[in-house]
Amino acid sequence: MASDEYAGKLKTELIAIARKKKLAVSEAMTKAQVIQALKSAEKSMVAAKAPAAAKSAVKKSAAAKPAAAAPVPVKKAAQAPKTAAKPAPMVKKTMAEPVMEAAAAKPAVEPKRPAAAAKSAPSKKSAPAPSAPKAAGAPVAKTAAAPRAGRTERSWDLPQDVKKFFTAEEEADIAPAGDLPSGYQETRVMTLARDPGSVFVYWEVTAQNAEAARAALARDWTRVSWMLRAYDVTGIDFDGLNALRMFDAAAGSGYGARYLPVEPEERELIVAIGLMTDSGEFYPIAFSNRARTFRGKPVPESWEAGEETFSALYAISGGYMPGSLMEMEISSLGVSSFGGASERGALQAREFFLWADCEITVYGGTKPDARLTLQGRPVALRPDGTFSARFALPDGAHGYPVRAVSADGVDKRGIDINVSRATSIP
Amino acid sequence: MADGLLALLLHAHLPFVRHPEHEVALEEDWLFEALTETYLPLLDIFDRLDGEQVPCRLTVTLSPTLIEMLNDPLLRERYERSLERLIELAEKEVGRTGTDPAVGPLARMYLDRFTAARAWWLPECGYQPGIEALLAGAGVKYFFLDAHGLLHGDPRPRRGVFAPAVTPEGVAVFGRDMESSRQVWSAKVGYPGDPDYRDFYRDIGFDLPMDYIGPYVQPTGHRKMTGIKYHRVTGGADDKDVYDRGAAMARVRAHAADFLLRRAEQTARVAPLIDRPPLIVSPYDAELFGHWWFEGPEFLEAVIRSAAWDGVELVTPRDYLNRFPDNQELRPAASTWGLRGYSEMWLDESNDWIYRHLHKAAERMTELARAHPRAQGVTLRALNQAARELMLAQSSDWAFIMKSGSMTAYAQRRVKESLLEFTRLFEEIAAGRIDERALARLEARDNLFAADVDYRDYLP
Questions:
Q1: A172 domain residue, yes or no
Q2: What pLDDT, in 10s, does the model give residues B337-359?
Q3: How many domains does chain B have?
């Protein structure tokens, strides 16, 4: 036992330990004296059988950690990136690096148990880590600790969402199972809704299909790139051309997976994997299933319930509580129409908090039959010629060039919108 | 004290009638009729009395032959079949007598009796429009969603989460109340973090010397929790005080009283907004009580004991539906009760790699079922085992654990192993060369739903 562990124990426990080791201790001794006795006994043991002791020391100290690590906040702080106290958690997640905020539907915390430390050694070793989001320092998931930094945490900290019998405290060495194939030599693309702001897409294209597409485009490989094209096909019998809107995202290769940002609306999406030429011509190789994205907010007002009544019920139901999944709805519903300030004030008074973020919506209109691009990408116009596109807005400078060309190609107009964001804590 | 005492006794007995040698044995109906008309209705009534806190003292004896029959797989299966036929007939009767003012309601009464409200807990409260049609088809009468599943429903729920709604298919849906959830769940404001409660982490399995505790931890020499824990949560510090059971029980009573008081306050806030007594639905993981929150069971006991005194009536969802059968029709919103309410707990960079394989395996399972619609013998066993492996791989728990970050190696292994076993079975079945010994080993180990798996469920 590491001697610093003794300090955390009650004297009675220490005496029991010492007696087990046949040391002469008594209740009359002070705790410090008992510890002293234990330590000197340990030293003499180490001296007596140094090689064996040295060997077992490794194991023991690993095993002993959990007890010593009991104060959860310490452990968390150690894991959290240095920037945790900065506004990281408030910055809207970008798809490439989903940020896990502290909020939880079952409010609470990341599962973390001291025991996890004990077993992490064997499991890390053997875990094949198919994607390595847990790597130390990676800007992933760790911000969970931030809002609580500096607070004295209760050590209860239930792994919250974790129903737990299965995050047992100890894990035997896990032999890795065999390996799954990376793909199945077939062309497939699938779309899965993840949350109101994103969908997950994975794809695989066979070499034959890829080659056929390239040949159809009559370009060599240096002049085509892999592209995903997401089509909004809400309520539409999609024929490949009649999507309401669409946007593209780089795919990188004929095999992969990525998250795509979507508007927090209930829409139906189909995503195609294909090749795009350097002149912007897209050749879809395969289309995904039709995925329905999450609504993420109440449906627009109707006669069913008065706005005021619903707002009040929404608030009482947790719609505005920090930590509830619906916190994000405050902005999208509009403060004025949804719950009086006093109402929210009362709720917040119980537990002070603040979060803030911003996004940007670029919108406008042109002739309905014009061709329009935003940031160089084609944007489908609504029947009345209007368009809108929503972007996450991380810190930094961002340009949103809008270009429109009339249907006959004669008239051209452009508007450049430049925005910069800087977030700080006063 | 009453003047007289009454002891009611019901003696239940049937002779042992079981005829595997006949496809249909009329005498087995004795059991089926008794189940449908006596045993199950009695259980319902006891449940209801229990729910309404009516002191119900009554003795039921079951004869050994009856118990044997109730436990018998063949008779159970036959009863299920007979009940399904009866429900089918009752449905037809509702259609046939629909306009008859006298008999129509009676036909509906029978249908209701035979299809007593059945609930379904959707894994992770995961809901997507369309599921309710499957639930309705399986006879499910109600299920549960997180608050926003209902609040974001279409049209808006005019009673918020404080009353169930009903989907167009006729399945009722209850929404979780966030406030009561937080009081118990939250690590920050929840009851279980109280300094007087027993600390979960300090366990003698880690505290005591290995030469003493060794035999009770892992044979590998690694420590683990034993379940014997002497400390209380104390403050935030490392230094934990010894647990004081009396003090903890006092906190339990205070927390139970607080919980009920908050429900009463909540009721008072909601009541003016809706046209009937508000219903507060508070779902929790059962393992929270006792395992994590050591005093949880006593907390529940205290809540249950004092509820009536504090003006809170405990009901089951079914009680509620009996009392308020008419509920607003709406289509709930796709949702889960996981982190932030959608799918990010199960679809994340830590676990998204599994879906490519799970989808492929599901597709192959359908392929297998199609190719062998009437399998027998070892092929049948292999197909059923393939279905078991697929379901094991699909368990949301594994993705959850991968994301939660502890025990991830185990979760990854479970998914991979089941997928690899599935693939092996797929290939063996397709090739018509099934390794029967390997299959038997797998059946013995992964015996999930041992008798209930039927690969034909994968026939489209």
A1: no
A2: 888 889 999 999 999 999 999 99
A3: 2
